[in-house]
Amino acid sequence: MSNGELRLPTGGRIDRAQPLRFIFDGAGYSGYAGDTLASALLANGVRLVGRSFKYHRPRGILSAGAEEPNALVELGNGARREPNLRATQIELHDGLVASSQNRWPSLDLDIGAINNLASRLLPSGFYYKTFMWPPSFWHFYEHFIRRAAGMGRAATEPDPDRYDHRYEHCDVLVVGAGPAGIAAALAAGRSGARVVLCDEQQEMGGDLLASMALIDGAPAADWVARALGELGALPEVRLLPRATAFGYYDHNAVAIVERVADHLARPGPGLPRQCVWHVRARRVVLATGAIERPLVFRDNDRPGVMLANAARVYLRRYAVACGRRAVLFTNNDAAYGAALDLRAGGMDIAAIVDLRADPKGQRTEAARAQGLRVLAGRAVIGVQGSKAVSGVEVARLQDDASAAILDREQIACDTVLMSGGWTPTIHLFSQSGGKLRFDTETAAFVPDRATQALRSAGACNGATRLSDCLAQGAAAGAAAAQDAGFAAAAPPLPELDPDLDEAPMRHLWVVPSDAPVGHKGKHFVDFQNDVTAADIRLASREGYRSVEHLKRYTTTGMGTDQGKTSNVAALAILAEATNASIPQVGTTTFRPPYTPVTMGALTGRTVGPLLEPARWTPIHRWHVRTGAVFENTGQWQRARYYPMAGEDMHAAVEREVRAARNLVGLFDASTLGKIDVKGPDSARFLDLVYTNSWSKLAIGRSRYGLMLRDDGYIYDDGVTTRLGPEHFLVSTTSGNAAPVLSFMEDLLQTEWPHLKVRLTSVTEQFAVVTLSGPMARRLLAELTRDIDLSPQAFPFMTLRAGTVAGIPVRVFRVSFTGDLSFEIQARASHGLALWHACLAVGEKYGITPYGLEAMHVLRAEKGYIIVGQETDGTATPDDLGMGAMVAHAKPDFIGKRGLKRAELLRPERKQLVGLRLADGEHKPLPEGAHLVNDPGLPPPMPMLGHVTSSYYSPTVGAPIALAMIKNGRARMGEELYAPLPDRVVRARVVAPCFFDPEGKRLHG
Amino acid sequence: MHKTDGDRRVTRYSIFSLARNALKYHEDWPQAWRSPEPKPSYDVIVVGGGGHGLATAYYLAKEHGITNVAVLEKGWLGGGNTGRNTTVIRSNYLWDESAHLYEKSLKLYEGLSQDLNFNVMLSQRGVVNLAHSEHDMRELSRRVHALRLNGIDSDVLSREEVQRLIPILDCSSGARFPVHGASIQRRGGVARHDAVAWGFARAADARGVDIIQNCEVTGILRDGGRVTGVETTRGTIRANKVGCVVAGHASVLAAMAGFQLPIESHPLQAMVSEPIKPVLHTVVMSNAVHAYISQSDKGELVMGAGIDTWNSYAQRGSLFIVEQTVGAVCELFPLFGRLRLMRSWGGIVDVCPDASPIISKTPVEGLYFNCGWGTGGFKATPGSGWVFAHTIAQDRPHPLNAAFALDRFTSGALIDEHGAAAVAH
Amino acid sequence: MLLIACPWCGPRAELEFRCGGQGHLTRLTDAMEVSDAEFARYLYMRDNPKGWHYERWNHVNGCRRWFNAVRHTVTHEFHATYKPGEPKPDLPRS
Question: How many domains are there within chain C?
Fold first, then answer.
């Protein structure tokens, strides 16, 4: 235990009364409530926390926030293992287990670091130039490349946690709760507007939490506490800490991920782990702050090299000194403030190395006055130490910065703090479609013209002074609320310390060392992906000069930090290399998410059983109880077959088919799509959407209809029955019920609004129980007294209303099996009772429930098609032998013109046929098998068509198949061949009907 | 080893040239392609510097000896869908016409790194199409049977075989859409998309093709019924043959030439997770659950979404499409729930009514269009360029693309590949 | 994540809608008289402009009614939504 090494005895915002224990790489440490993993590791003196992606360079903690490229760790174990988390954003909790990644066998001794030694052979894009010979070896090379891939490891088991989505509408959304964001929320919230204020950190306040500034004469953090207290008391204001706005979408939709339970050692039951908020805001205020920029100097990646402001944050918020003796390397004045704060906190500042020859700002003067050693016009030309900084080499810069070998000096230190200026966090602004402007003085892209209803305020808008941040925030918040219709006013500024004069920055994008860049050591631009200044120059030399080419060729900005610290330097180095200005080079597009978002959170609850609604028929419970095997057809879960003890599917289906053919079968047809069509123009409407005619259909009669698309191909089929003069019941295929309804509604609303027709989906309002087989009539006769079932009184394709088993029903004499059938429709709530009644009475007739599979066999024996199985969107009525169903004499119907096109009239089109296999073939052909004339030809073989349905037919006692074959009707009796992977099957073309071709059973 | 040809200097890429250049700190590599000023006229202008356009120029030079060619790119080469897709390569299409075209492409891919002397990192790790119902199995079986008779590798896998091949896939029967089986094309896989564009660019440049970036075509010049050149943001450039390969912007260029196309431009989004150690070794696609996913050589999970349903030229879509895609991936791979989405983006895809491309002559003589690849153009890049070069050079389609002409919309002989492309490719 | 103003229901989230492509296409009444090429133009050819687009939408998970809209295909801004049968609004100048 090495706790407390660098923890200051007092101060910080940690709760010293709540010590926490945690494990990193197997070793136990302790920290306090309020710590991040990074602050706790630093407090324990842990420097080395990770390895880089490509060279496996030892890496420490660079930052204190979302921009961290280096300190990535794996959290948790087993099902809860989570890779690539930034230690700077992990809230410490008791028992937290973290480990380093991308190293083997250990963080300290990492074999992969051999890449660093070979790095001369591994410049950007090296893999495009090699691994090509011999060609067959690439698989071998790739094996090793792939093994080197990735950072952390995925969990090994399904994620046990739950995630949620929430939807929120507000007047003003404020993103970021630093000074500008809080000021904006106050200005908007006081007007009564509904305000959401979100911030990615556990504690709101942003930089004010680490600031020594006084507001209204008190520490800045006190002002934050007061403001948050006031906001929390406003009824229309919602504060969302631990909530990262990660995406800005069209029409002011902002997505926020809230980490609800990640910080809890033992989350309460029912608490989702994370929640994605979909916020639609009338107005948005972006107060997303800014990120400090590293400087690019030799070996600037050593553990102990940090951003200057991060060190200040660790000191002020977490009471952690990042080291004992630091050299601060800067190109600007602001870093002096950090130096003074750090020194006040007890850190030894060995020197301030300032790139500027003559820095003259009020802060620099103050530093000098306090006795800090300022080395102006100098640069850190190299860092010493490998797994930890041991010192720096400093030299005076020549005026043109060409080389820096004058006045070399070694300075021993364990920490290097760098400050290269600030990069406004413009990700969300850019995602919103906003246009950017380059500010030359700060060398940063800042918001220019917004294209959505948003305003930027504070550091993300280029402001550097607290007074500006507060003023911009208040103005933006007030204006946003006004735009949303509230009488808001910007509150007056609180009393602040006077602003300090600042001297301009000096932009030196690559700090020279004593050898040309790339010859000795490495000048890192993108830490995580190991992209150096030399890589960027190489890319430019080779012609990869567009920003996107640069990014893709070098992989700069493509890591998990998405270039938050590297973006501007990479652009600037490219601009220098191509003699262009930075705005000429432009910037890459900022893409969501701002920081990586848990995939489970994006998924929310729509996974597992809730992925897609499962639809059950009213008789579903009986199927389940009976042990049916189910099949998904679209959203429906349908009984496929009902195995009895010891039966496989084949046996069960054969039994079910035989029973339905020889005795009576019972089928749950409730999934059949049903559309109730009413109105004086119903018949006219059906005439337009079906190929056949309906106007003359008598009441109480049914007719099979074919529906085409405008292009002439078959879209749907089904039986429609006329219930009254202006009333029809249309049935559709189970899977197509919703699309067909939409198709009809579209036509009625937009093409034929003059037709008086009402459509109602009644699929789920009715249960449908089908009795099919020779005994069906006798069975049904026992259940009904008010319906005359005799063939004369109740012929095929008619409807009778009455009662069955005391249940009000409609009985349709239609058939999809080719046998005598009655489809009984009852109210859904009566479905199960009807089913039971049939079963009870049917016992003596040998009633057998049959499932979807047997139904398919029965209908295939009869040669009935299934739309979507025999058809594939390219079949015409004539292809199926149903040409006669097209009433060409009708003036118009959907698909009429389409049918007349050349392709649809072409000879040699595929036509529906039946297939019988050669004697001795007992195994049905695989569905999808193709047929050829000559199986002896080498591929590509000319194919004639394919098998659409194929079953063993118990009725025929042999396999049967339906197929779509070129010119099939002219091939009756021809022998064709189906070449299968293991054999060739001979098949004879026959008519597509294997049972009762005369229809005696059907009409009987 | 340096070949000098005017301002062209080409270094052959190999481990030896890499080592030699390492000694010189890589300061002596020549540029991969020149950035020439446009000439007043060319024999052929290819509009669009994506993979397909660059491949067209390369094969015009290589196969047809036409080297006085300009590729005009309004932005940066490879910056459209070439650089935005999910890099899946396969040829397991339903209809013979498609299968042969995509197979031509796959065969070209198989020798592309050597042909271009640029490693496009083709990884033939296998493409698995999952079936989640009997209907899926039937469709998949039909496709596999046809492919085999066409001489294209394809197999059906049982559920158990799928589970063995992809242990982390949820093949349990309790899944909302249980896996019934799959088809696999073992020669399918992924390639490095940028490298395909850069490799073609470098190789075309080496054969004399002028690649002109930041040059937007603003008009198509015609004289009577034939094309005479283009107006661009960098002046007028003449040519008697102009091939347009501009994906999402096809309709915009067609409008300049005075005709309409059967195309709608839609956003198509894709996304990657943070990089993780390898866990997924094949490409997995599921039409029923609506996801397709692979793991890149860098370790990122690469996931493709379906299109947003409205027309757009904005290269961005809606979040719920991303959420649905990620949800589908988590459904198939429940242990991915804790991984994190790192980046999402959009491209503009040119969608044809039959989900098949148009590689065709047009009503304007000398003007050719190659478009309509929708969600699946990357896999076709070399083949598309190869047949388009033939179509331009010979002024008639190659047998491989004859069926993909514009006149199929008049005759009705569409090549309906919606089944093959249900989610996206 | 579009916000779409259904002319009957008011502004609703995109999830409630389905886009139906180019608007103001009228089904050919003389279809049997036109050439295959004319018919193909009606069936397949689309404007697909980069800019303002007349299109149709269905409030499929709401009132289920169809309506027309003018939307910009680059900015995604809606200029107008209106009921079927109402005249085509003029395009904005921009």
Answer: 1
Strand intervals (E) in B261-416 = 264-273, 283-286, 291-295, 301-307, 340-351, 358-361, 367-371
Question: What residues in chain A have per-residue pLDDT under 70?
Answer: 1-4, 401-404
Instruction: Confirm if B141 and A926 have CB atoms less than 8 A apart.
Output: yes
A749 touches chain C (CB under 8 A): yes
Domain of residue C36, CATH code:
3.30.2270.10
- The residues pairing with A835 across neighbouring beta strands, listed in sequence order, are none
A-chain CB neighbours of C26 within 8 Å are 751
Please, where are the H alpha helices in A531-689?
533-541, 547-554, 567-577, 582-585, 599-603, 620-626, 649-662, 682-689
Whether C89 is in a domain gets the answer no
Query: Is-contact C8 C68, C-beta < 8 A?
Result: no
List the single best residue of B249, B266, B308, B313 to mutate versus C (max C Cβ within 10 A): B313
What count of Cα atoms within 13 Å lies in the side-chain half-sphere of residue A374?
27
ipTM above 0.90, yes or no: yes
Q: Give bridge partners of residue A720 from the DSSP assignment.
A: A703, A730
Distance (Å) from the alpha carbon of C89 to chain B's nearest alpha carbon? 19
**Which of B152, B142, B196, B67 shows the shortest CA–CA distance to A928?**
B142
Residue ranges of domains in chain A, CATH in brackets: 15-116 (3.10.20.440), 122-148 (no CATH), 163-290+424-483 (3.50.50.60), 294-420 (3.50.50.60), 524-580 (1.10.10), 612-905 (3.30.1360.120)
Q: Determine contact, residues C64/C57, Cβ cutoff 8 Å.
A: no
Which is nearest to A25 in space by CA: A90, A62, A73? A73
pLDDT tens by residue, A35-84: 999 999 999 999 999 999 999 999 999 999 999 999 999 999 999 999 99
Partner A, chain B 283-342, Cβ-Cβ below 8 Å: 289, 295-299, 316, 318-319, 322-324, 326-331, 334-342
Q: Count CB-CB contacts under 10 A for residue A719.
A: 19
**B44-47 and B69-72 beta bridge pairing:** parallel
Q: pLDDT (tens digit, 9 = 90+) per residue, B2-41? A: 443 445 678 899 999 999 999 999 999 999 999 999 999 9
Residues 6+ apart with CB under 8 A from A995: A661, A818, A861, A862, A953, A955, A956, A1001
Residue C66 lies in a domain: yes
Residue A510: alpha-carbon gap to chain centroid:
38
Cα separation, B196 vs B52, whole angstroms: 10
CA distances from B247 to B216, B378, C21 (A): 14, 11, 19
* Residue A707 CB-density burial (10 A; 0-12 exposed, 13-18 middle, 19+ buried): buried
Q: Kind of pairing, strands A665-668 and A848-849?
A: parallel
Count CB neighbours of A17 within 10 A: 7
Q: What is the DSSP string of B58-95?
A: HHHHHHH----EEEE-SSSTT-SGGGTS--EE----SS
- pTM (two decimals): 0.96
C-alpha to C-alpha distances, A978 to A24, A919, B95, B156, B318, nearest whole angstrom: 63, 15, 18, 17, 47
Tokens of A686: 């059906």
What is residue A43's three-state secondary structure?
helix
